[in-house]
Design goal:
179 residues, mainly alpha, elongated
Length: 179
């Protein structure tokens, strides 16, 4: 499924294409998945595990202070999210129903919780810039997770992941951190 998504896009992801790619019958695919959205949901969960979401986020939450955690958050976004861009974009284009909507809601809730946790940490450390509240800082951090934002910088503008990491870290520090 990942190869089909990355090479041909969401429109090419059918149960027949999956069967052909996997070298099994279409019925064999249906034994494991009842729909393309179900395949995508499982794929996204599998990629989160195999691409190291837990380890990437651990670097954020194990940081010595909130500002260092903000830098680790920038590194997380620059390293982890680009590896899943094609899958995430395809998932966003999927019909908004059933398992896809449930999965997107679960991912969005986890992302928002991470952003809130980071903004609250900055506030608790007395490092959140005066013009921000935990709520508004959370919203800004959450908005910048957007796959399209990351894709525009990496794909459209040709930034490297290192440039993305450094740029996000500078943006976060100059915008959210009290001087």
């Amino acid at each position: 499924a990942r190869a089909i998504l990355e090479q041909q896009g969401f429109q090419a992801l059918t149960m027949s294409a999956l069967a052909e790619r996997a070298g099994v019958t279409r019925g064999g695919v249906y034994l494991h998945f009842d729909s393309v959205p179900a395949v995508m949901t499982e794929l996204f969960d599998h990629l989160a595990e195999t691409e190291g979401l837990g380890a990437s986020l651990a670097r954020v939450w194990e940081a010595e202070d909130a500002v260092t955690a903000l830098d680790a958050w920038a590194a997380h976004l620059a390293d982890y999210h680009p590896r899943l861009m094609a899958v995430d974009t395809a998932l966003q284009r999927a019909e908004r129903s059933g398992p896809v909507d449930e999965h997107r809601a679960k991912v969005a809730a986890a992302q928002l919780d991470n952003c809130r946790r980071l903004a609250a940490w900055l506030a608790d450390d007395g490092r959140l810039a005066a013009r921000w509240t935990v709520s508004t800082a959370t919203d800004v951090l959450y908005g910048l997770i957007c796959t399209e934002f990351i894709s525009r910088l990496l794909v459209d503008r040709g930034w490297s992941r290192d440039e993305l990491r450094k740029g996000l870290a500078a943006l976060f520090r100059s915008t959210l951190v009290a001087r």
